[in-house]
Amino acid sequence: MLLNEAYSGKVFINSSNDYDHARAVIYGMPMDFTVSFRPGSRFGPARIREASIGLEEYSPYLDKSIEDMIYFDAGDLMLPFGNAARSLDMIDEYVRGLLKDGKFPIGLGGEHLVTWPIIRQMYSKYPDLALIHIDAHADLREQYEGEVLSHSTPVRKAVELMGGHNIYQYGIRSGSREEFAFGREHVNFHPFEVLEPLKKTLPSLSGRPVYVTIDIDVLDPSAAPGTGTAEAGGITSKELIAAIHEISRSSVQVVGADVVEVAPIYDPTEQTPIVASKLIREMLLGFVPN
């Protein structure tokens, strides 16, 4: 599953060349083929890596440093432009290999549809899997304008695969009337807020394997304008970082994570990839087992 040798771009700060001994593997999924508004998230993984150069290795929140761990940045998957189905198959195959090698996968998107094949592989390995989904959008559509492969559909696909009772959604503030009705009936659905409902529900997930997927647009556009479908009324970066720490301090078993929908072209200030890179650092230190 070693991609880094052929990768000519920048890598995440302090990443190692030692795949064999790495506990976690960062990998990019530069796909934005099904977005419904503004494309550009295919450039997200590269800009998140570049922004990481400005990070300190030390997290004062967790009193840990990424200098004290071994993780590998595999670079970006070479996804066939415009071919969503084949791209999802390639992500599926790559993540399956990471899990076979015992690695903790941390994905960089890309549009949110890239999370769907990851969930499939995670659920195959962990039948008791729970999904924590933090996002502005419900992503509970069966199709979008006739397309079943859409960044509006990954969580609905997850519901059909693993059951809505295993899915926990936070921060949702946009979606169709039907999505909100479906979420309230079939999913552990917590619209508008993230931190407080997360604190209340994490104890019920004690000991369970959990996959965490974060769409950067859960943040208010004032904190993260660089995304394809910005939605006013979001949370602050401080609250999102605190949510990561709540998960990391809980007794759940996080088995993988991703950050998606960073579209840097819409953010000349670069604050969006900057906050995304910090989220990745906190995930590395908080989620990856010692």
Automatic annotation (TrEMBL):
Organismal lineage: Bacteria, Bacillati, Bacillota, Bacilli, Bacillales
Entry-linked PANTHER family: ARGINASE/AGMATINASE, GUANIDINO ACID HYDROLASE, MITOCHONDRIAL
GO molecular function: agmatinase activity
Regions that span the bilayer: none
Gene encoding the protein: speB
Matching CDD domains: Agmatinase-like_2 (cd11593)
EC code: 3.5.3.11
Alphabetically ordered keywords of this record: Hydrolase, Metal-binding
Family stated for the protein in its record: Belongs to the arginase family. Agmatinase subfamily.
Name listed for the protein in its UniProt record: Agmatinase
Key word Ubl conjugation present: no
NCBIfam families recorded: agmatinase (TIGR01230)
Matching Pfam families: Arginase
Superkingdom field: Bacteria
